[in-house]
Structure formats: C-alpha cells, structure tokens
Amino acid sequence: MSQTMLLSQLIPDVALSRDPTITGLVLDSRAVRPGNAFVAIAGFGAHGLGFVDQALANGAGAILFEPPAPAELPAPAEAIAVP
After folding, report:
1. What CA–CA distance (Å, rounded) separates 80 from 83?
2. Which of 14, 38, 66, 76 has the highest count of CB atoms within 10 angstroms of its CB?
C-alpha cells in the first residue's frame, strides 16, 4: 500500500511557498524517485546538500536540509531548512 502526505503535513511548523505531495523520505540521492523528499543531512565526509542536483534530476518533490548549510555549500533557494 502506497501512502502519500502533503509536505505541509510532514513539516507543519515550517512556512512553505508550495505544498507538493510527498511519496517518501530518502537520504540517498541515488535512491530518489519522483515525488520523494530528499533529506540532506550532515555526514562525516560530506553534507547531503552536495547531492541536491542528483536528487532533483531523479525527481525529488522537495529538498529538506539540516541547517546550517556549510559555507562552501550554500543551500539552494528551493531547499527547506528543517531543524
């Protein structure tokens, strides 16, 4: 059974400029499928923000990231900071 959720339901305390239907949450940009939200978190060697282009190319419906964005890797305008 497939379940979906509006982004506003997933992060109700965050002001959004758009409210797409999200089909899943994914940490690995290579595994993103259309409608998934890519969750970009800080890792040991890299921040997930470095993989946003790949996630978008794979059809990510939203980009969520763990702030702060590294100075050398600014968050794209469409990315949503989720503390």
Report:
1. 10
2. 38
- pLDDT on residue 45: 87
Q: Which residues are within 8 A (CB) of 68 and not within 5 positions of it... i.e. 6 or more apart?
A: none
Cβ(63)–Cβ(40) below 8 Å: yes
User: Helices marked H in 15-76 — which ranges?
Assistant: 52-57
Q: Which pTM value belongs to this model?
A: 0.91
Among candidate residues 24, 29, 14, 12, the one with its CA nearest the CA of residue 81: 14
> 68: cis peptide before it, omega within 30°?
yes
Q: Which CATH class is domain 5-81?
A: alpha beta
pLDDT in tens, 39-65: 999 988 889 999 999 999 999 999 999
8 Å CB contact between 48 and 64:
no
Cβ atoms 35, 25 nearer than 8 A: no
